[in-house]
Every structure is written in C-alpha cells, then in structure tokens.
C-alpha cells in the first residue's frame, strides 16, 4: 500500500500502511545510523513524527517516499545535534569518527558483506544514500529524488557514480579497466 486515497489516510489504514513499511524503514535506518539500536530509535522517532504529521500527508501520493523523507530528515537533524553537542564537549576535537556507524562484526556477517559494508562507507553520504534508497530499498529514481529533495536526473547520476565507485573499490582491477 504505497499510495493512499483520502479515505485510506484515515487513522487505522494510515497506521497499517506505516506498519507495512517497517522492514524497509529499519533497513534504511540501519544504513544511516550504523547500529541496530540506533536504527530502531531512529525509526521510532520518524514514525512518531509521521503520525504527528499525518494531516500533512497528501492522499494519492507515495506514503513510502513521504515516510522515507521523514526518516532521512530525522537522521540528519539528530546527526547535526550530536555533532554540535560532541563538539562542545570535546571543544573542537574531530567528531566524524564518532558519527560513523559501528563496524560489522564476524558474528553478524560473512566476509563479502563486511567488504561491501566497508566499500559503502567509502562513498560520500549523498552517493551512499542514493544507492541504498534505489538499490537496497527498491525506491524508484523519482521516489528517491523526492526523499532527498533533488531532481530525478541528479538521483540517477548519484546512483551511477555510487555503483561505479563500488565496482572500483570491490574489484580494483576491473574498476580501473572499465573507466
């Protein structure tokens, strides 16, 4: 249930539709936040904001894109707040390391998944976000563009650059040969 009519946007159907998006929201939050606990907190905050903003949802539009946008905005708002707080506490010490997600452990993933995780982390946040939304979450270029508030052409270019960068990182010999 990606788009809702005015009748379906009523509370029970709206909540049911949000619940159906939970697995996808958790997966996207995991890419953004890094750890499971942080991702679950992020999803919870985003869903609370979505429920509080239900009246702002335009029936007939993509609930999926709307909810992913809320999740993304919630993440960046929390990220900025943490950076400011950490910077105040550490009085200017680098905060980028603290903002990065936890590394995958051997118990959680196989070696190639760890390699993929490392390769994804080498991408800029905008490229990583584009690839996760389109490649992992299955959003269309248009939906992902709506989430990131950029034109669809920009989203297509970001996904293309992200895929090329991943190919070069995961297989340096092929990555250099294909350029």
TrEMBL record:
<dbReference type="Pfam" id="PF08281">
    <property type="entry name" value="Sigma70_r4_2"/>
</dbReference>
<keyword id="KW-0804">Transcription</keyword>
<dbReference type="InterPro" id="IPR007627">
    <property type="entry name" value="RNA_pol_sigma70_r2"/>
</dbReference>
<dbReference type="GO" id="GO:0006352">
    <property type="term" value="P:DNA-templated transcription initiation"/>
</dbReference>
<protein>
    <submittedName>
        <fullName>Sigma-70 family RNA polymerase sigma factor</fullName>
    </submittedName>
</protein>
<dbReference type="Pfam" id="PF04542">
    <property type="entry name" value="Sigma70_r2"/>
</dbReference>
<dbReference type="InterPro" id="IPR039425">
    <property type="entry name" value="RNA_pol_sigma-70-like"/>
</dbReference>
<dbReference type="InterPro" id="IPR014284">
    <property type="entry name" value="RNA_pol_sigma-70_dom"/>
</dbReference>
<feature type="domain" description="RNA polymerase sigma factor 70 region 4 type 2">
    <location>
        <begin position="114"/>
        <end position="166"/>
    </location>
</feature>
<comment type="similarity">
    <text>Belongs to the sigma-70 factor family. ECF subfamily.</text>
</comment>
<dbReference type="InterPro" id="IPR013324">
    <property type="entry name" value="RNA_pol_sigma_r3/r4-like"/>
</dbReference>
<dbReference type="InterPro" id="IPR036388">
    <property type="entry name" value="WH-like_DNA-bd_sf"/>
</dbReference>
<dbReference type="GO" id="GO:0003677">
    <property type="term" value="F:DNA binding"/>
</dbReference>
<keyword id="KW-0805">Transcription regulation</keyword>
<dbReference type="GO" id="GO:0016987">
    <property type="term" value="F:sigma factor activity"/>
</dbReference>
<feature type="domain" description="RNA polymerase sigma-70 region 2">
    <location>
        <begin position="20"/>
        <end position="84"/>
    </location>
</feature>
<keyword id="KW-0731">Sigma factor</keyword>
<dbReference type="InterPro" id="IPR013325">
    <property type="entry name" value="RNA_pol_sigma_r2"/>
</dbReference>
<dbReference type="InterPro" id="IPR013249">
    <property type="entry name" value="RNA_pol_sigma70_r4_t2"/>
</dbReference>
